[in-house]
Amino acid sequence: MLTATAPEAPTPTLFLEPTDRAPQRARTFLADRFREWGITDDYVGRLVVCELVTNAWRHGDGQIIVRVFRDERDGLVVIEVWDQGPDLPVIQPENYAATSGRGLFLMSHLVRAWGTRPLMEGGKVVWAKCAF
């Protein structure tokens, strides 16, 4: 007898134009996902997605793609931000005179793990895994 399994639900995905409105739209998208999952404290998630989308808008290239999903292995939330730029994000060395460049450093201390992976078609994914 053959058995069938239900297809997995598609991963919630947001497509953004690289504009100054992208971070706000990404925060709203994440807040909506968290509400669906019953996660009431979305502050860190909104901060993480805002930082990653802002970096993609300012330093990346092309359309920005945001995905938010639960890792089935450990239940943690994964936030992915894709762009077509070739440069990988790097935590900047301390510079007390700088007026920017601290976001990735701060984000890295709020998440369980983060990293990057190149895309075969060009560009990269920057991801962060958060516990809530």
Strand adjacency order, main sheet: 1-2-3-5-4
Q: How is the main sheet built?
A: 5 strands, antiparallel
Roughly how many Å is the radius of gyration? 16 Å
**Helix segment tally:** 3
Distance between the termini: 41 Å
The rough form would be described as globular
Mean pLDDT: 91
Proportion of residues in β-strands: 15-25%
Structural class per helix/strand content?
alpha+beta
Q: Would you identify the regions where 5 or more consecutive residues have pLDDT less than 50?
A: 1-7
The SSE order reads: EHHEEHEE
Strand tally is 5
**Percent range of helical residues:** 25-40%
What does this structure look like?
This protein is an alpha+beta fold. Helix content is 30%, strand content 23%. The chain has 3 helices and 5 strands, in the order E-H-H-E-E-H-E-E. The chain has helices at 22-37, 43-59, 103-108; strands at 13-16, 64-70, 77-83, 113-118, 124-130. A 5-stranded antiparallel β-sheet has the order 1-2-3-5-4, covered by helices on one side. Strand 2 and strand 3 form a beta hairpin. Helix 1 packs antiparallel against helix 2. The longest helix has 17 residues, at 43-59. The protein is globular and about 45 Å long. The model is unreliable at 1-7 (pLDDT under 50).
